[in-house]
Amino acid sequence: MLITEIYKSLQGASTHAGLACVFVRLTGCNLRCTWCDSEFSFYGGKKMSREEIFDEVIALSPGGGLVEITGGEPMLQEREVVPLMQQLLDGGYKVLLETSGERLLVKVPKQVIKIVDVKCPNSGEPDTFAIENLEALQSHDEVKFVLSDRTDYEFARDFVGRHRLDERVHAVLFSPAFRKDASGVRDSSHCLLDPEELAQWMLADDVPARLSLQIHKLIWDPAAKGV
Ligand code: SF4
């Protein structure tokens, strides 16, 4: 498997936000979202066996706990990452999978909590969500929309309503996009969409979603890596 980094930090952008978590970041992505903050994971990486990755997770979090498989797009390495997720589950870990929603998710082990993006019009990668993935969603999963303006918001609001997403999954997340060159000040001024404005829209429309801020960018310098 090609791995960009394995590190321990706080989970930042889901209903698990704030919990200690080991991140396994796989190398490579087939999308190019305009606001992507993980471009460093597109190329390079270190070749590691499943056992080597598992050993590193154990070293960082020996007593079990939360592990997030992320990227890049982890499902590009489906043949190897699916057995890794199963091994982590068997080893007593709670496993999150963060994915763009473009790859089919039917082979992901059922106990894995999927955090699935639906790319919005201004992401630069609209219409990439594999609609078959709606059927792969389970009640413990989460669906995330990263929003940069009103057009994105209306797309997300209508998508949630049309597919009754809130009835399918544990949480629907509306997350303001962060400027990818953000650094220094740790506040929401780096958001492409003002969280206050988003909150007002969500309240006005009674959207069955939760506003989600990337808390690691409010705790550490938004440009910091490995946090
Ligand atoms: S899918 Fe994720 S890693 Fe890939 S370009 Fe988009 S935000 Fe970046």
Give a written overview of the molecule:
The structure is a single chain. The chain has 227 residues and is α/β, with parallel strands linked by helices. 26% of the residues lie in helices and 22% in strands. The protein contains seven helices and nine strands. 38% of the residues are buried. The site of iron/sulfur cluster has 10 residues, from loops.
Provide a quick synopsis of the model.
By secondary structure, this protein is α/β, with parallel strands linked by helices. It is built from 7 helices and 9 strands; from the N terminus they run E-E-E-H-E-H-E-E-H-E-H-H-E-H-E-H. The two termini are 22 Å apart.
Features:
227 residues, 9-stranded mixed sheet, binds iron/sulfur cluster, alpha/beta
**Helix share bin:** 25-40%
Shape: globular
Straight-line distance between termini:
22 Å
Largest sheet: 9 strands, mixed
**Which sequence of strands runs across the widest sheet?**
3-1-2-4-5-6-7-8-9
- Tell me the Rg in angstroms: 17 Å
Strand-residue proportion = 15-25%
Number of extended strands: 9
How many individual helices?
7
How do the strands and helices of this protein lay out in sequence?
Blueprint: E1 2-10, E2 20-26, E3 46-47, H1 50-60, E4 65-70, H2 78-90, E5 93-99, E6 113-117, H3 133-136, E7 142-147, H4 150-162, H5 165-168, E8 171-176, H6 195-205, E9 210-211, H7 216-219
Parallel strand pairs: 2-4, 4-5, 5-6, 6-7, 7-8, 8-9
Antiparallel strand pairs: 1-2, 1-3
Bound molecules: iron/sulfur cluster.
Iron/sulfur cluster binds next to loops.
